[in-house]
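Regression test case RT-17, inverse folding.

Input:
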């Protein structure tokens, strides 16, 4: 670690302690902690008093808001210390620590492209588009990146782990994440945080503040919060074991296995100075002075890569964790008039970054004439002696500067609404309208222009004096072309580089979301077992996306690799829903209740579709709750799935047909012809709080999810594998040249079927130490969560593929069989100390490929944290991945296992 890094960390930590970092007051802490203790119940009721003295009831698993109602769908709650544990930099990464989530998109797993640095939620590994994220129970524009939500304002997060489309609409196939803000915030909080890895990188710091107050005698309330955060990321992958130039490649003929994953895999057909690959000079690379020397080859693996040697690799140049800077703000005001509370809120988020992606290259495909005047005379003479008129070479253009990716994403979201009641509180209503807009401004800098580059390397001697000129200058003396000297690192004329490369690639995409909703809840009548509760309502939303500022070069497809393109599309949906809860039995030994929900949705682009849900709960002797539900859930294609234009990525794939690996270009994109997908979800489970062990809560829930016509974009590897298995339709998406795969088209499609099932376990135990001895302060709290997934398959009508146990990063639906987390916390009025274990099961990199080192072992990570509360000041320290457990061999970005390693963080907060 650099000395200045240490000084910066110490200075910021000291400032954090003095400036302080915000926390909610002690009462809010206790209240949130109490909410967590109810996490094993099927629904959580927040009975905190509102400004009007009326209880606010929030039940994310249902639209029924009757006190005491048990929703039939399991709900997990994260609040209190669970929000602070591990000092995660965004709420999405807090969620990713839970076994029900998969970290499919994070700054570590997505270090380039349009989603760089973002962190959405992904329940069950079904994809982020199948997890509906709400803010205070409503859709909002920042749902695609939970970095946009200021963490200091969050009271708790409720996670519904089951289909909820009938209650909440499209997108809730995997479940719902409802982020609930502390809308009763009182006082001022200010704080700071910082963190750094044990390797001296991944440095981050941030500041935040929040303020809340009542006015007009308690009738009104105002709150505002802001957060600034800067994460420098990790640009050098080689600082971690197993993450540098690691590649899947072809084993030599006669090996026991077709493929192997190895470290230090480099290009064998290109170098930074220029590598000659044909003719009498083959195997020679250029020095800076233009002379030649033998290239230091490693162990060859095919014609493109080698193990060892002096070459470079694509993965040497890509980031491990995307840097990003963000600024978030949120404000809300409410005012009560009679039985109605009117409210308005607004949020703003700005996230940006600019960082190197990787260098442009031409590998074994540059043809150089021996008459090129940049060639030294000695080299030209050797070519003449051999009767050779030209040679091919490969070149990596690191000395011209790396291709750089930059973006600025700005999100604005505003909403107005009213919540109230009438008929002496027997009926409750809500209505709101919201408008949001996301502006995504991005660009690729220092990219190669195909035509300009080809003209610049086609160099001849000028008829007037013999100076190097572009060949095109012979017929066009006014050309802007400047001859490019390829031979030797650092010899190119900056004017020639500026002609052959451009930083003009740019586009701005604007996504808009308008939502409107109205609902009515109440208990219209009672039966023999109690009141019948209903909820009815209507919703509508309008979604659109459009592009502006597309550069002319991208529009003309002038860049060799990455060309932006415009995207235009829109749809709207109008919906009506209803829900009913009917008590069937109300006795001491059994409180049996039936519930049903239905929703009718009409999409402007795909027509009408319905969703429904049936549920049954039985609370036995007050401490055992049994629950079951069956639902039909729907999801229409998102804007990006429907309308996205072509995206481009480079990756290594293994071809089972030829038993060879290639580095290919994969083109993705939207598909306006997508049909809505239909999900069928069954959950059966229950929770138990044994009266003979006060403070213990246990729950277990079985889930079974089937999605027909699942919308998915397959990876290049998946398409190649399915083609080899007999899916001829997917074979049509593969382009070959002389039998070698060069390109794969991976647009969104409706897969035939997607299935998964498993079991969620949860246990919590709160032990007041005073129950052991009156003189012992504080309490011990244990909480454990685990998810077991025995099967997850996709079936495209030709081949059925099982993904459970495939945990390599190139597998699109790969899932460990087991994930679990357990924590033990001691807490008193001053001190809170916690230890957490996170377990991720192992498996194979990809069981469909014959890989020599296919096995990936399980990992267990230990995290430690401590918080000290002194009056209104809280200081905290955390270390994640205490034993610095290495990641498995990884070629791009691992979604299951930690890649950063041991990480230290500190924070301070103060409240007034």
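Golden output:
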């Amino acid at each position: 670690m650099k000395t200045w890094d240490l000084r910066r960390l110490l200075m910021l930590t000291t400032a954090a302690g003095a400036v302080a970092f915000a926390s909610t007051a002690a009462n809010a802490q206790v209240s949130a902690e109490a909410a967590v203790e109810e996490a094993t119940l099927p629904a959580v009721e927040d009975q905190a008093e509102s400004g009007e003295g009326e209880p606010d009831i929030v039940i994310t698993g249902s639209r029924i808001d009757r006190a005491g109602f048990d929703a039939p769908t399991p709900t997990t709650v994260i609040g209190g210390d669970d929000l602070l544990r591990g000092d995660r930099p965004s709420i999405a990464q807090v969620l990713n620590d839970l076994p029900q989530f998969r970290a499919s998109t994070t700054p570590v797993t997505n270090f380039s492209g349009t989603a760089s640095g973002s962190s959405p939620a992904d329940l069950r590994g079904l994809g982020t588009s199948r997890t509906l994220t709400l803010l205070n129970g409503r859709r909002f524009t920042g749902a695609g990146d939970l970095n946009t939500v200021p963490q200091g304002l969050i009271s708790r997060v409720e996670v519904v782990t089951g289909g909820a489309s009938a209650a909440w609409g499209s997108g809730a196939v995997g479940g719902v994440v409802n982020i609930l803000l502390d809308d009763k915030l009182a006082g001022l909080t200010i704080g700071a945080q910082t963190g750094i890895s044990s390797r001296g990188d991944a440095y981050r710091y941030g500041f935040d503040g929040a303020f809340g107050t009542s006015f007009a005698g308690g009738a009104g309330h105002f709150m505002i919060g802001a957060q600034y955060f800067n994460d420098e990321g990790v640009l050098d992958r080689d600082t971690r074991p197993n993450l540098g130039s690691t590649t899947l490649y072809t084993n030599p003929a006669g090996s026991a296995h077709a493929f192997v994953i190895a470290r230090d895999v480099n290009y064998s057909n290109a170098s930074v100075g220029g590598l000659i690959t044909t003719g009498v000079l083959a195997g020679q690379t250029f020095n800076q002075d233009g002379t030649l020397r033998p290239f230091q080859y490693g162990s060859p693996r095919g014609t493109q890569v080698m193990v060892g040697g002096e070459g470079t690799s694509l993965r040497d140049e890509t980031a491990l964790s995307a840097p990003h800077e963000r600024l978030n703000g949120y404000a809300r005001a409410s005012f009560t008039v009679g039985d109605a509370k009117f409210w308005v809120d607004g949020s703003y988020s700005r996230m940006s970054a600019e960082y190197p992606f990787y260098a442009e290259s031409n590998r074994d495909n540059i043809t150089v004439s021996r008459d090129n005047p940049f060639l030294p005379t000695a080299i030209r003479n050797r070519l003449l002696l051999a009767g050779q008129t030209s040679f091919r070479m490969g070149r990596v253009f690191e000395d011209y500067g790396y291709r750089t990716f930059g973006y600025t994403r700005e999100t604005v979201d505003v909403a107005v609404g009213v919540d109230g009641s009438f008929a002496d509180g027997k009926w409750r209503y809500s209505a709101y309208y919201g408008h949001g807009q996301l502006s995504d401004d991005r660009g690729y800098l220092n990219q190669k222009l195909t035509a300009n580059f080809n003209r610049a390397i086609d160099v001849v001697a000028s008829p007037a004096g013999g100076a190097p000129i572009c060949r095109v200058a012979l017929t066009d003396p006014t050309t802007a072309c400047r001859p490019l000297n390829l031979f030797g690192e650092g010899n190119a004329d900056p004017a020639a580089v500026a002609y052959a490369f451009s930083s003009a690639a740019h586009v701005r995409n604007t996504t808009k979301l308008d939502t409107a909703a109205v609902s009515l809840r109440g208990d219209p009548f009672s039966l023999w077992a109690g009141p019948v509760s209903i909820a009815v309502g209507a919703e509508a939303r309008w979604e659109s996306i459009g592009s502006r500022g597309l550069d002319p070069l991208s529009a003309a497809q002038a860049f060799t690799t990455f060309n932006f393109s415009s995207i235009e599309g829109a749809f709207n949906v109008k919906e009506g829903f209803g829900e009913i809860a009917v008590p069937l039995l109300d006795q001491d030994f059994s409180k049996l209740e039936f519930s049903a929900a239905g929703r009718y949705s009409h999409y402007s682009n795909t027509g009408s579709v319905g969703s429904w849900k049936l549920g049954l709960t039985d609370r036995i002797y007050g401490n055992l709750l049994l629950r079951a539900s069956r639902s039909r859930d729907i999801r229409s294609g998102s804007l990006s799935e429907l309308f996205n234009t072509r995206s481009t990525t480079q990756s290594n794939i293994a071809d089972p047909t030829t038993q060879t690996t290639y580095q290919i270009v994969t083109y993705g994109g939207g598909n306006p012809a997508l049909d809505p997908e239909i999900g069928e979800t069954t959950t059966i489970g229950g929770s138990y709080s044994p009266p003979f062990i006060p403070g213990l809560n246990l729950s277990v829930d079985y889930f079974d999810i089937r999605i027909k016509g699942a919308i998915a974009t397959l990876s290049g590897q998946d398409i190649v594998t399915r083609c080899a298995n007999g899916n001829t339709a997917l074979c049509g998406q593969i382009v070959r040249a002389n039998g070698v795969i060069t390109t794969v088209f991976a647009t969104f499609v409706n897969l035939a079927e997607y299935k998964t099932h498993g079991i969620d376990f949860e246990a919590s135990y709160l032990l007041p130490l005073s129950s052991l001895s009156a003189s012992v302060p504080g309490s011990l709290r244990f909480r454990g969560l685990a998810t077991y997934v025995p099967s997850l398959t996709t079936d495209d009508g030709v081949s059925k593929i099982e993904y459970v146990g495939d945990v390599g990063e190139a597998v699109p639906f790969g899932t460990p069989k087991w994930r679990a987390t357990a924590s033990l916390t001691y807490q008193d009025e001053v001190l809170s100390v916690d230890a957490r274990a996170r377990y991720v099961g192992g498996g194979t990199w990809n069981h469909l490929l014959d890989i020599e080192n296919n096995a990936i072992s399980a990992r267990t990570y230990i995290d430690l944290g401590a918080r000290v509360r002194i009056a209104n000041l809280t200081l905290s320290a955390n270390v994640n991945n205490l034993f610095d457990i290495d990641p498995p061999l990884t070629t791009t970005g691992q979604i299951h296992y930690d890649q950063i390693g041991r990480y230290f963080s500190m924070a301070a907060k103060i409240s007034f």
